Amino acid sequence: MIEDRERVATTDARALALECVETGIEAGRPRRVIRETVTLEESETPAESREGGGADETLRIADETYDLSAYDEVVVLGGGNAAAHVAAALQDVLGDRIDGGVVVTDDPVDTERVAVREGDHPVPSRRGVESTRELLAAADDADEGTLVLAAITGGGSAVMPAPAGAVTLEALQETTNALLESGADIREINAVRKHCSALKGGRLARRAAPATVVSLLLSDVVGNDLSVIASGPMAPDASTYGDALAVVDRYGIDVPDAVADRLERGAAGEIDETPGPDDPAFETVSNHVVADGLTVLEAACDAAAERGYETLILSSRVRGEARDAATTHVAVAEEAQATGIPVSAPAVILSGGETTVTVRGDGTGGPNQEFATSAALDLEGGGGITVAAVDTDGIDGATDVAGAVVDETTVDDAERAREMLADNDVYPFLAERGELIRTGPTGTNLNDLRVFVVE
Fold first, then answer.
1. In this structure, are 324 and 418 located in the same domain?
2. Phi/psi at 22 (5° precision)
């Protein structure tokens, strides 16, 4: 999975950190996840005893079952980084019981029965708008005889753009860039996105009603808030236009006039709010989180344990500024090394979640690269601690890498490292030292993964 792995894995500790990364990401891939949570069961009743003599098949998703004979058609709708992989996995299970559908993604794979259309991440694009228009049309075609399997994954907020009202794609792009650079967390960012969209914040569920909708979600959101994952296209939304305006004000974001006008008109009650829990559209909707950050952490933990290391999952909900989180993580690793608290070395300490970066400079990087660089500065002159930090979708920030692996040898010029960190330009610093981790698109998106190997 990791390109040029031998070049990066220059020590046993680095090799272990990368093994944990690969094992964790692999555990969250849709084909594995869907295989474990979705099954098609055929009735044991003899065919000649069934009405019409046809097959009586039951679709089981987690603890819920659906009698496929009760539906005229089964379609797959949705979007996100891993949506096409989910569609392909569902096709593996259901075969020709799937009658069609549309998913939008930036990581396409071939499927025979579901149309895969392309969008872009992390900033929405023209082709994403066109693809999402096709997705909305497919949702509009659903009726009470349709079973919709909704493939909703991280990245859906960007790859499924549906600018609402007078909001243009250009205004949406400008707003998205400003939000991503502001330091706002994903809940705040998506509160704004939902109120500029014809699809997000439960509006896709409203378009698909009265169909039966079963959402399969791969969560990249701390706490698995259904209304935040991909901006909650199939989930009730409690956020308001007023909340979106508050985010813009809190971070001093200068949004385009069309966005400001929409949010202000919505807050004044001139535009309908996103549908809430009492909306009838959700009477036939159920949501299932089939994989999340803990899926990744538990698999990575098992990989380390198999190598004889003590393990500790620090948290799956780490958030805040990446460089600050790194300092705290290093302190925990140093304590473990020195005192055996909270875990005795040799150990592997893991965490997940989603850190953020407030962009003040004009460089290239991402939260995991900043986390790694900040950790490397704290490790300078120390020994026996190795850190890998990646985004599980293979794209850290807006770069072509997943993250980085560092240790006490990474920083040979602390002053330059601090300058590049201050300028949000750590990508070239890490590239020069061969510390970047490249995976390409991984086929999943389950938040960040951080691995500390403590010798």
1. yes
2. -65, -45
Domain boundaries, position 355: 5-26+294-454
Same-domain pairing of 45 and 170:
yes
What is the rounded average pLDDT for all residues in the chain?
Answer: 95
The three-class DSSP label of residue 379 is helix
Q: Return the beta strands (E) in 171-309 as ranges.
A: 212-218, 285-291
Give the separation between CA 7 and CA 62, rounded to whole angstroms: 41
Q: What are phi and psi of 150, to 5 degrees?
A: -95, 115
State the pLDDT at residue 44. 58
- Cis omega (within 30 of 0) on the bond before 275? no
Torsion of CA 154, 155, 159, 164, to 10 degrees: 80
Question: Does residue 48 surpass a pLDDT of 60?
Answer: no
**Maximal CA-CA distance, the chain:** 80
Residue 7 has a CB neighbour count (10 Å cut-off) of 9
Tokens 């950790």 found at: 375
Residue 451 CB contacts under 8 Å (≥ 6 apart), including other chains? 17, 20, 21, 300, 304, 348, 349, 350, 387, 388, 389
Which residues 6+ apart lie within 8 Å of 159 measured at CB? 79, 80, 81, 83, 104, 105, 106, 119, 120, 121, 124, 128, 131
Provide the number of structural domains found in the chain.
Answer: 2
- Which pTM was predicted? 0.92
Dist. CA 148–CA 139, nearest whole Å: 9
241 and 343 both lie in a single domain: no
